[in-house]
């Protein structure tokens, strides 16, 4: 099939590489310009560079809404568009242009976690598995019929980086497998159960600010979700920003006020956590490694030279 690819960052790069390695003919690539956004500088392999290396024409756009791009698509005469990690809305006149429609590849197990940063949100929420879905594009965000979907388990110590590596390896088999079904003439696919759909926004600095009213189990997953190379979860101690690089749920249960620097337990320093911490029924979050405002990385037992005081969400 003649394929036009819309994509960005490493997800788009892997999709384009899979297409180039396949029997399909990539006739045009559309990608975004480079960005300085913190999350878009991560996993930033260039789709444009890969296309140019293989002699595929490239268009660079923030949004696919101009007449020149539309005419280039008409001239390319695609059987199908394949999109992965395209960051803005694709209008119906574009996704409906190819003879076989548009296949979107999304790194979640749709209908859950439509939208942005699905791996991070899924890890924070304690999902047991994550994956990749190829679905036909329609007017709604990540809502079209599912052509192919594959899942991988989330391990008890997995970080968002671990999940990225697990799921990025699914892109090629999911994409090429879905295209094989479409090329064979299949047109009926699995409809999404929209009652199970959930939608998530892009992550920002507010989403990595630690709220000590969260249960320790949730905070431990937040720390893993925001591990390197993502911006680290942070709190404030004595008015200074303190990044939490590693933490575990405490063995013991600790009562009091959320955010209290309470007790040394093993290799960590326990912080009281949970909105109902006053009951004394909660585990705390045992910080094990932190980074100070001036960039020093320390074990928590080195940093907290005495117990007492509070960690807070704001200075």
TrEMBL record:
Protein name: Methionyl-tRNA formyltransferase
Domain Formyl transferase C-terminal: 205-306
Source lineage: Bacteria, Bacillati, Actinomycetota, Actinomycetes, Kitasatosporales
E.C. no: 2.1.2.9
Domain named Formyl transferase N-terminal: residues: 1-169
Lineage top rank: taxon: Bacteria
Enzyme class, broadest EC rank: transferase
InterPro entries (UniProt xref): Formyl_trans_C, Formyl_transf_N, Formyl_transf_N_sf, Formyl_transferase-like_C_sf
């Amino acid at each position: 099939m003649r394929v036009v690819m819309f994509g960005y960052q490493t997800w788009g790069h892997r999709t384009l590489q899979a297409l180039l390695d396949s029997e399909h003919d990539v006739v045009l690539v559309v990608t975004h310009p480079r960005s300085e956004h913190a999350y878009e500088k991560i996993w930033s392999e260039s789709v444009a560079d890969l296309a140019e290396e293989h002699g595929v024409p490239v268009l660079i756009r923030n949004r696919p809404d101009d007449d020149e791009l539309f005419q280039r698509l008409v001239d390319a005469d695609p059987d199908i568009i394949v999109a992965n990690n395209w960051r803005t809305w694709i209008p119906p006149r574009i996704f409906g242009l190819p003879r076989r429609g548009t296949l979107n590849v999304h790194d979640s197990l749709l209908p859950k976690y439509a939208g942005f940063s699905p791996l991070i949100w899924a890890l924070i929420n304690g999902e047991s598995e994550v994956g990749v879905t190829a679905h036909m594009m329609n007017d709604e965000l990540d809502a079209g019929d599912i052509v192919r979907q594959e899942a991988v388990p989330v391990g008890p110590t997995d970080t968002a980086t671990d999940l990225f590596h697990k799921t990025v390896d699914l892109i090629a088999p999911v994409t090429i497998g879905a295209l094989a079904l479409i090329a064979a003439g299949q047109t009926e696919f699995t409809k999404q159960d929209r009652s199970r759909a959930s939608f998530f926004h892009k992550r920002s600095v507010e989403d990595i600010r630690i709220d000590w009213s969260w249960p320790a189990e949730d905070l431990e997953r937040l720390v893993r979700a925001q591990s390197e190379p993502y911006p680290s979860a942070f709190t404030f101690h004595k008015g200074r920003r303190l990044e939490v690089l590693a933490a575990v749920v405490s063995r013991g249960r600790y009562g009091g006020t959320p955010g209290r620097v309470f007790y040394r337990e093993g290799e960590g320093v326990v912080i009281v956590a949970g909105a109902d911490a006053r009951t004394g029924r909660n585990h705390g979050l045992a910080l094990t490694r932190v980074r100070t405002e001036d960039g020093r990385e320390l074990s928590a037992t080195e940093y907290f030279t005495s117990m007492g005081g509070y960690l807070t969400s704001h200075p």
